[in-house]
Design goal:
There is one protein chain. By secondary structure, the protein is an alpha+beta fold. It is built from 14 helices and nine strands. Helix 3 (47-63) crosses helix 4 (95-103) and helix 4 packs parallel to helix 5 (105-114). The chain starts with a strand and ends with a helix.
């Protein structure tokens, strides 16, 4: 566990100089992150912003239908806009998530400490998701994020930030576990092949070939597909005592899994509880979208965007918002995001549904009798 003081957080956000003490602290975090594949950091999110994000999370939970693995799973909280007196208002005010994920200490820390984003480079938000864990006794097993959660090709080294919005002590389960150093483990390629991870996709992309598609969509199934591999990874598992506001930064290729709330936790939390978390995936703007079958808005709107960099496809349309510390620039981008959310995303969701039906029909047609 690393702790960032308010003064250090302000220094990260301002970019005004640095001290030997701050540099040493950040260097220590970076070295640990590179070696272990993760870093748990406390203090990056101020209390007032955390309170707003918790309120937004409560609103999302209230509007969600519980699933088999999570009480709530909502992509794109940053594209939620609610204006005073607006009858078309979204179910949640996403301003806290936008500030947290695009403008605050989290992206500043990633840009300056973990990814060393240069002056001529950009850091972009690839995908965000709000989740809440309740009584569900299913979990997503050991995995690296698939193309649904991480739609760039396997050449990139992005960062996933998992943010606890509630206290989640490991005694009761309900958090996220990691397998240290798995991003550089000798067995990683075998694990990728087991669950159909992104490195299996050929350079030309994921085609509509049923044989190829059948290898994917098994992201959470390590326990059943390779019990020995699962047992080996489980033996290296680390769980943490999360406090609200803690940020777990993970290398894109670090194996991790969700943890169900255990029997003690069910007794402790009682009825109708939800343990909230917000996850954000970041990439440099030079990262490239996958080719072939792709459910990303940028590719659904224009298939020519497949294989392009995030910078290239986000020139005029904020498919992948740029993280920024310049408030005026953030305001302009926020206005574009609102237009995008209201005028473009509805058509994207409709087209995505059609493509998913076509893929399902193709898989069903070619399934063995």
């Amino acid at each position: 566990m690393f702790t960032i003081t308010p003064e250090q957080r302000d220094a990260l956000l301002s970019g005004d100089g640095s001290s030997g003490e701050l540099d040493a602290a950040l260097r220590s975090i970076r070295e640990s992150y590179d070696e272990e594949g993760y870093a748990l950091v406390r203090g990056l999110i101020p209390r007032a912003l955390l309170d707003r994000a918790q309120k937004g999370g409560d609103d999302l939970v209230a509007a969600s239908r519980p699933g088999a693995t999570f009480t709530s799973l909502d992509f794109g909280a940053i594209f939620q806009f609610r204006d005073e007196g607006d009858e078309t208002a979204d179910k949640v005010d996403g301003s806290a998530f936008r500030e947290l994920a695009i403008e605050g200490g989290v992206p500043a820390f990633i840009a300056k400490v973990l990814l060393n984003v240069g002056n001529e480079e950009t850091l972009r938000l690839l995908k965000d998701a709000f989740l809440a864990k309740g009584k569900e006794q299913k979990h997503c097993g050991w995995h690296v994020d698939d193309i649904g959660f991480w739609p760039t090709d396997s050449s990139s080294m992005g960062v996933n930030c998992w943010i606890a919005l509630d206290d989640i002590p490991s005694t009761y389960g309900g958090g996220m576990a990691v397998c240290p150093k798995s991003h550089v483990a000798e067995w990683k390629k075998k694990a990728y092949a087991t669950i159909g991870s992104t490195p299996l996709i050929p350079p030309e992309g994921l085609s509509a070939d049923p044989d190829l598609l059948s290898k994917f969509g098994q992201t959470c199934q390590m326990e059943y597909l390779d019990p020995e591999m699962n047992k080996m990874i489980e033996g290296s598992k680390l769980e943490f005592d999360y406090e609200a506001g803690d940020c777990l930064f993970c290398n894109r290729w670090l194996f991790h899994r969700s943890v169900e709330v255990n029997v003690e936790g069910l007794r402790h939390y009682g009825e109708n509880f939800s343990l909230k978390r917000y996850t954000v995936r970041y990439e440099k703007g030079t990262a490239r979208l996958i080719r072939g079958v792709c459910l990303e808005p940028a590719a659904l709107i224009d298939s020519n965007n497949q294989g392009k960099t995030l910078d290239e496809v986000s020139g005029e349309v904020p498919y992948y918002p740029q993280c920024c510390l310049d408030k005026e620039r953030c305001i302009d981008q926020g206005n574009n995001m609102k237009t995008f959310a209201r005028e473009v995303l509805p058509a994207v969701h409709e087209k995505k549904g059609q493509v998913m039906k076509e893929i399902a029909a193709l898989m069903k047609r070619d399934a063995p009798a």
